[in-house]
């Protein structure tokens, strides 16, 4: 068989290009990033003109990486504890590091399983307005040159610790709030004689929503409970989980009891509900005698049981009518 000259040249060119590719291409690897920072949250009261020192422990649990430590202000958003972190530090509060080997926003190399401590100095200048100031202390990875000429995928990650500072001259804090929403999510509603009734199918779970709004200039921690009562006097109490609600914001308040799988519900009540039920909430803030109350109600109706019973009655009626017709035909 005669081999074409062009075919030989094509094969040679392909082998040459393949050789150059394997010789000149550098290795690529994916960098793993796992950081931890503690404490995860710090709450403190400070007078104007004072300073304080907080130690943060940062640990790198994955590949060697460079990190920077920085502080950013944030503001609360939404009803579920979200926050919006500012791109720059916007605050009269001043921050620096007391470390000799670390500076704010300057990269340091951390080996695998390496631990470092950032000593954050906080200064409250004289004349700083009283109120709350919210920050997050961030440890953020930075790109580093790969080892041995390898090209690393520059994975970037950050982890933060929440810092809540209350500036007050007298030590007094303002706790002022209201119940913005307290209700259940029914299966359906029914209007009768100008009144709306919430209906729950007897075997369904009852989602409860409790949102508390902070009307003051300092963070609050609602405490209290939600009580479920039926028509014959039995009651079940669901204690509220004490959570921070930042100034001028609202937040969904969870319970330490019940089911909390849905992030948009405070909790869910399980059971078999028949007849009228009343839910009442009591909220206080622990610093004074102010009590906030709200109530809602629903009716448990065995809809599924009723449908099943109706189906059985219809089938039974059909069978009985059929048997009667057969008997009549036989007698005739």
UniProtKB/TrEMBL annotation:
Q: Which domain of life is it from?
A: Bacteria
Q: From the UniProt annotation, give the residues forming the signal peptide.
A: 1-30
Membrane spanning stretches: 305-323
Q: What UniProt keywords apply to this chain's record, in alphabetical order?
A: Membrane, Signal, Transmembrane, Transmembrane helix
Q: What is this protein called?
A: Alpha-galactosidase NEW3 domain-containing protein
Q: Which organism is it from?
A: Candidatus Roizmanbacteria bacterium RIFOXYD1_FULL_38_12
């Amino acid at each position: 068989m005669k081999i074409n000259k062009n075919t030989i040249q094509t094969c040679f060119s392909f082998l040459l290009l393949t050789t150059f590719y394997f010789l000149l291409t550098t290795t690529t690897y994916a960098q793993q990033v796992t950081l931890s920072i503690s404490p995860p949250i710090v709450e403190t009261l400070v007078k104007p003109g004072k300073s304080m020192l907080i130690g943060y422990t940062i640990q790198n649990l994955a590949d060697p990486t460079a990190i920077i430590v920085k502080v950013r202000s944030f503001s609360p958003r939404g009803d579920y504890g979200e926050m919006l972190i500012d791109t720059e530090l916007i605050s009269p509060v001043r921050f620096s590091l007391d470390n000799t080997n670390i500076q704010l926003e300057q990269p340091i190399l951390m080996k695998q399983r390496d631990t470092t401590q950032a000593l954050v100095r906080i200064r409250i200048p004289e004349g700083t307005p009283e109120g709350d100031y919210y920050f997050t202390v961030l440890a953020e990875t930075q790109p580093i040159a790969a080892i041995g000429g390898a090209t690393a995928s520059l994975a970037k990650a950050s982890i933060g610790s929440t810092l809540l500072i209350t500036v007050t001259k007298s030590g007094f804090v303002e706790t002022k709030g209201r119940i913005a929403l307290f209700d259940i999510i029914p299966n359906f509603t029914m209007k009768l004689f100008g009144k709306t009734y919430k209906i729950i199918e007897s075997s369904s779970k009852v989602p409860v929503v409790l949102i508390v709004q902070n009307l003051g200039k300092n963070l609050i921690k609602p405490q209290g409970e939600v009580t479920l009562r039926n028509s014959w006097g039995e009651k079940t109490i669901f204690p509220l989980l004490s959570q921070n609600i930042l100034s001028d914001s609202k937040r969904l308040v969870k319970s330490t009891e019940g089911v909390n799988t849905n992030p948009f519900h405070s909790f869910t009540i399980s059971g078999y509900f028949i007849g009228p039920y009343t839910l009442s909430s009591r909220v206080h803030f622990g610093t004074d005698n102010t009590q906030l109350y709200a109530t809602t109600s629903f009716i448990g109706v065995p809809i599924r049981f009723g449908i099943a019973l109706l189906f059985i009655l219809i089938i039974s009626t059909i069978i009985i009518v059929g048997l009667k017709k057969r008997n009549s035909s036989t007698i005739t």
